[in-house]
Write a structure and sequence with these properties.
This protein is mostly helical. The protein is about 80% helix and about 0% strand. Helix 2 runs antiparallel to helix 3. The longest helix is centred in the C-terminal third of the chain and has 35 residues. The protein starts with 11 loop residues before the first helix and ends with a helix.
């Protein structure tokens, strides 16, 4: 009986889009961090700022789920979508923090390439999220999800190649450990983008 006093609609899509913007902005700062290590602390702080903003949006979404009677799609899907998007930002913060904490003075070219793929993946996620409010865009959304999957496959191959090269060419053990950890974290970002794409695909298939 209390359901009629609860709001029937929540601003879920607005929050999704705001969260996705944090993703994209943080990914651009990640690219800058990897390419301009002398400014690592500045870009690390920018990534952390976006991660904090996204955390608030995640909590706002979860709170809204408790207050909203009618949701645009399944509650579990909303929860999975926003928390997995948040995982992407957490991983980007991990990359930025690792570069700064390890006092990394140089990175492999592959790290820069992976950072660019991360940014592309985040941009694709934002595009897919922006279309979710209209299931008439189902075909376009699924195409974007396929692109995200392709980017993850590209990142996976690049990671394997980069680590193989590291073990062949890097003699300093500490340096090898640092580079390997950062490369793996960057690739994990693309894994999480793929996870978001899979969630979005599920939402589309159930609601289109």
């Amino acid at each position: 009986m209390f359901s009629r006093f609860m709001p029937k609609e929540g601003k879920f899509f607005e929050i999704f889009n705001a969260h996705a913007k944090c993703l994209v902005d943080a990914s651009h700062d990640l690219v800058l961090l990897v390419s301009k290590l002398d400014e690592a602390e500045i870009h690390k702080k920018n990534v952390q700022l976006k991660e904090n903003q996204a955390d608030k949006l995640t909590h706002e979404t979860i709170d809204l789920l408790h207050k909203t009677f009618i949701t645009p799609f399944d509650r579990d899907e909303i929860h999975k979508l926003i928390t997995t998007m948040d995982d992407i930002l957490d991983l980007m913060e991990d990359v930025a923090t690792a570069v700064w904490l390890y006092d990394v003075q140089s990175l492999t070219p592959e790290a820069g390439q992976l950072a660019q793929i991360c940014a592309s993946g985040c941009e694709q996620v934002a595009q897919a999220v922006a279309l979710l409010k209209d299931m008439k865009s189902a075909s376009a959304i699924l195409t974007i999800c396929t692109t995200i999957d392709r980017l993850e496959t590209e990142a996976d191959g690049l990671l394997r190649s980069a680590i193989s090269k590291l073990f062949r060419e890097e003699d300093d053990v500490k340096s090898l450990i640092k580079h390997k950890a950062i490369l793996e974290l960057l690739e994990e970002v693309t894994d999480k983008c793929e996870d978001v794409a899979n969630i979005i695909e599920g939402i589309v298939l159930e609601n289109a």
